[in-house]
Amino acid sequence: MRIVREELKNNKGKIIVIPQSFDDLWILLQIISPGDIVFGKTTRRIKQDTEQIDKGERKTVYLGIKVEKTALSDFPNMLRITGVIVQGPDDIPRNTYHTINIRENTKIEIFKEKWTSFALNRLKEAERISTIPPILIVSMDDEVCCFGLVTNYRVSILSKIHSNRSGKRFSSRSTNPVTRTYFGNILKTIKEYLTRYSPEKIVLVGPGFVKTNFKSFVAETNANVAKIMFVENTSVACSNGIYEAIKRGALERVTKEIQIVKETELVDEFITRLGRNEKTVAYGLEQVFRAAEYSAIETLLVTDSALTKSIENYEKIKSIIELVEKQRGKVFVVNSNYDSGAQLDGFGGIAAILRYSLEY
């Protein structure tokens, strides 16, 4: 995220930003709320009085809309912001509905009557971590290899390669012709992703010795690529192996910067304490709100789906976040599309790790 300019007085005003990745669009989804005014470049059909409703010329215009709802799409990467028009050219009628589609590298202005510390901190954190490179995970066994890209808040499964092995013809040793072809195809794909995404580290995961033998193969043919490879064990390969590697802390041993690693650890910690029947956790809006009133929350966990479910939900969660931040607790927004977020959604989308025990 690039913050272009802030124009705030007593936390009221506008901030101009340019989202630079899907992660940034995801963060904007959490920050932009009903009642905000968002300004952006968009297209609108301009109709003359004599034209039919489906006629008229579509023009590029700069509009301000009062937000009513938001939605995020990952194909294509786009944040859709819908509301009524409050500002724009004279030939655009006011108080009519319009949707502004925000894509990567699109400048937008966000005006709020009150910028909370949560929203401001999320923007500044997004700006800070935008320089952190992604990690490429290569999850393989003797049948299939999957490639995953891990950014700060997202795991993307990029592609899959099959070994086309046939019975005993396949050997995990790189001297085998079938294996060399398989390994060669994997290395070719890795080079393509190094060019496209610029990861600084590659994590090879999977069961058995295939991943280790592959690294040796790479060391023989491309020593520079082998230098940034790390090997970790998982019980399975392909996409399940990628998620297992994250859950088992494989990325933590490579880097501590990726946010999704920390979020997974915290959700695991919450579930572990809950399983032990400890009183140092709370979940669901009512329990968590009461814990916040007692200044008991050390770490607050909220899923993005809980934040965007409804206006009523958003306002209550926002009040909890403000309480927690005043009490110097930490707030994490967890992506619902992945295991940790899906688990948290099962507990109402909001949970807390407490400083001390509470009885409910």
Which regions are unreliable across 5 or more consecutive residues at pLDDT < 50? Answer: none
| Shape estimate | globular
Largest sheet: 7 strands, antiparallel
Relative helix content: 25-40%
Average pLDDT = 90
**Number of DSSP helices?**
12
Distance between the terminal alpha carbons, to the nearest Å? 41 Å
**Side-by-side strand order of the widest sheet:** 1-2-7-3-4-5-6
- What is the SS-derived class? alpha+beta
Order of helix and strand elements from N to C terminus: EEHEEEEEHEEEHEHHEHHHEHEHHEHE
User: What number of domains?
Assistant: 3
> If classified by CATH, what would the architecture of the largest domain be?
Roll
How many E-type strands?
Answer: 16
Strand content: 25-35%
CATH class designation of the largest domain: Mainly Beta
Stated plainly, the CATH topology of the largest domain is called SH3 type barrels
Radius of gyration: 24 Å
Kindly report the name of the CATH homologous superfamily of the largest domain.
Pelota, domain A
